[in-house]
Specification:
single chain, 195 residues, alpha+beta, four-stranded mixed beta sheet
C-alpha cells in the first residue's frame, strides 16, 4: 500500500514549480506550490489544461515535457478588468443632454461640447454626441444599461410624472427582482431593476 501511495505522488523541483507558475490558474498554483502533490489534490484542483501535468505527476514522469506542451496563459495584469464608463451615442446633443440632466435627473460630473459624464454610482454613464457624419444612419438601441433601484414601481411612478416613456412594464426576472425598460428621447432603452 505504501508503494502505491508513493507512486501516486511526485516531487516538484524548483524549475518545474517555476514552469507551473506560468501556466496554472491560482487555485491550482496553491496546490502545486507544495513539495508533494497527492493524487486527490490533483484530482480536485485539476482543470482540462492541467490534466497532462497531473497524469505525468501520478506516473512519476518528468513534468517538464507535460508543461512544455501546455498553452501559456495570458498575462492577466494586461487584461481588462475595470469598466471606466458606459456610453450612449446621441444625435441631438442639446436635447439629449437636457433629458439626462433635467428629466432623468442624473447629476453631471463633467461636461463639454459633445461629451458628458454623469455622477452615477459605480460605473460612469457617459453621453457622446454624434457629429453630422456619424449621426447619419445611427439607430436607437437597447443599451444594456441597468439602473439599480430599491423599488421599481416607485421609480416608475416618478419617471411617469416626468413624462419619461415606459417601454416595458415591470416583469419578474428572478426571485424578488423586477425589471422595466424606459427610453430616452432618441429611443435608446435603459433598464430599471429592483424589488
Amino acid at each position: 500500500m505504501a508503494k502505491k501511495s508513493a507512486a501516486a505522488t511526485a516531487v516538484l523541483n524548483a524549475p518545474a514549480k517555476k514552469m507551473l507558475a506560468n501556466v496554472l490558474p491560482a487555485p491550482v498554483k496553491a496546490v502545486a506550490a507544495k513539495p508533494l502533490i497527492a493524487k486527490n489534490a490533483i484530482k480536485s484542483a485539476a482543470m482540462e489544461m492541467v490534466k497532462p501535468i497531473a497524469k505525468a505527476a501520478l506516473k512519476n514522469q518528468p513534468l517538464k515535457a507535460a508543461i512544455k506542451n501546455l498553452p501559456l496563459k495570458a498575462d492577466t495584469a494586461a487584461l481588462p478588468r475595470e469598466i471606466g464608463h458606459v456610453m450612449i451615442y446621441v444625435k441631438n446633443w442639446d436635447a439629449s443632454l437636457n433629458w439626462y440632466k433635467n428629466v432623468l435627473g442624473l447629476p453631471v460630473k463633467f461636461e463639454s461640447e459633445g461629451w458628458a459624464e454623469f455622477a452615477t454610482e459605480g460605473t460612469t454613464l457617459a453621453l457622446h454626441g454624434l457629429d453630422a457624419c456619424c449621426a447619419e444612419g445611427h439607430q436607437a438601441r437597447e443599451t444594456g444599461i441597468c439602473f439599480n433601484v430599491k423599488n421599481v414601481q416607485q421609480t416608475l411612478s416618478v419617471l411617469r410624472e416626468r413624462a419619461i416613456k415606459i417601454v416595458t412594464e415591470p416583469h419578474q426576472v428572478c426571485e424578488n427582482t423586477f425589471c422595466a425598460e424606459i427610453a430616452d428621447l432618441e429611443g435608446n432603452t435603459l433598464s430599471i431593476v429592483g424589488k
